[in-house]
Design goal:
Shape: globular
CATH architecture: Alpha-Beta Barrel
CATH superfamily: Phosphatidylinositol (PI) phosphodiesterase
Structural class: alpha/beta
CATH topology: TIM Barrel
Helix content: 25-40%
CATH class: Alpha Beta
Distance between the termini: 66 Å
Strand content: 5-15%
Number of helices: 5
Number of domains: 1
Length: about 180
């Protein structure tokens, strides 16, 4: 009796093992990322927060590209006249020579603001300025850390203007296929 029960148990065990094996088909897994590259290297705000130049500036982004980064993560804000500028905080008070919220300035008013505590004259820059100065920008990759300001009067309008501005600048520089949005 035990012999028969052992045979049946062994039979069920083999069947279960076979079923598990069939379910575990070995499919070739891709090690490619979204952009068909094995590893994507993006500079954080350019060369990073410990670099001698402020992040989110051409002076930090260009060296990151120069040493071989595939692109950069960039913090962006929208001005009152719908220009995308590179800056980490919503307010200018702590890190620049100006004060106030970025969305309260036009680009003409804002472009005279410099980064504080930097020996060189490093100005706040627009995304258009940075893209226009980067050689072969269409071959680079960018991850936009969208800094939506929740203190604006009409959040829906602000967000739609933001999306439209980002879409337009990416189309202008032919980088629409090379963009991630955070």
């Amino acid at each position: 009796m035990h012999s028969r029960r052992n045979k049946i148990s062994l039979y069920y065990f083999v069947v279960c093992l076979l079923l598990v094996h069939l379910q575990c088909k070995k499919e070739k897994l891709s090690d490619d990322t979204y952009f068909d590259s094995k590893v994507m290297i993006l500079g954080h705000r350019g060369m990073g927060v410990y670099y001698k130049m402020p992040g989110d500036t051409y002076e930090s982004i260009a060296p990151a590209i120069g040493i071989g980064a595939d692109g950069c993560e960039i913090d962006t804000h929208l001005t009152k006249d719908s220009i995308l500028v590179l800056y980490h905080d919503a307010t200018l008070d702590d890190h620049s020579t100006c004060s106030g919220r970025i969305n309260e300035f036009t680009w003409d008013e804002l472009k005279g603001c410099k980064y504080a505590a930097v020996k060189n004259d490093i100005f706040i820059c627009s995304l258009d300025d940075v893209f226009s100065r980067l050689p072969e920008v269409q071959n680079l990759y960018f991850s936009f850390d969208i800094q939506l300001d929740d203190k604006v009067a009409d959040v829906d309008l602000y967000q739609s203007q933001y999306v439209r501005a980002l879409k337009n600048i990416c189309e202008k520089y032919k980088v629409t296929d090379n963009i991630l949005i955070e």
